[in-house]
Write a structure and sequence with these properties.
four-stranded antiparallel β-sheet
């Protein structure tokens, strides 16, 4: 089967997803995540990819990122793999590939869908029942957005910056936004996009209780 063409539109973010082979863990301890994070920070800077949100689960990762060029995401992910997979294989005395095929990436083509993907990414560990609140998650971008924690990977997206005039207002608005669970239809639309590589045609509106300036 031919590989699906990955689209690029200047200025638009992509929702990137990579899973471990056969759904096996790609991280087994905190050091693994730190090594992966370091590789991702360095590679994204090298290839001019702005990462706006992220989460590292045990057997998969999600990113929301905006590349400056069509080759930004492919080169970043390739470089991360070249650094991380040999490290992982040496550490755990294994051989062969670590990923379940190539990563997937689809365009985030509306403002509403961008916020929805942000909620999907940062609430992943809560939705899985691993943590009670996203504020407990040290391996996601939530603390940067919600509390201003230093995060070497994050470049704040313009849509995040519209959440308030000041850092305090933006952080408060972000906590409110992430306090609203995704509806079943929202989850289904994102999961379909992850499978097909195509963004939803008609994303539902943001919850009315979330005010975006």
């Amino acid at each position: 089967m031919a590989r699906r063409h990955r689209r690029f539109v200047e200025g638009l973010s992509l929702h990137v997803h990579q899973r471990g082979n056969n759904r096996q863990d790609m991280f087994r301890d905190e050091t693994d995540r730190l090594v992966f994070l370091t590789a991702l920070v360095e590679s994204s800077r090298r290839y001019d990819v702005r990462v706006h949100a992220w989460i590292f689960m045990n057997n998969h990762i999600h990113l929301i990122a905006t590349p400056a060029t069509p080759e930004g995401i492919p080169r970043t992910m390739q470089q991360v793999g070249r650094r991380y997979v040999p490290y992982f294989n040496r550490k755990y005395s294994r051989t062969g590939g670590l990923w379940e095929g190539r990563y997937s990436a689809h365009l985030i083509d509306t403002e509403v869908y961008w916020y929805r993907c942000l909620r999907y990414v940062e609430l992943n560990r809560v939705r899985a029942g691993i943590l009670a609140t996203p504020g407990d998650d040290v391996w996601s971008s939530y603390r940067s957005h919600a509390f201003g924690a230093r995060d070497p990977l994050i470049t704040h997206h313009d849509l995040y910056l519209t959440l308030g005039r000041t850092r305090t207002e933006r952080q408060r608005a972000h906590r409110a936004l992430l306090g609203i669970p995704l509806a079943d239809c929202e989850l289904a639309s994102i999961r379909q996009a992850l499978r097909t590589g195509e963004p939803p045609l008609e994303p539902p509106a943001l919850p009315s209780s979330v005010m975006v300036r």
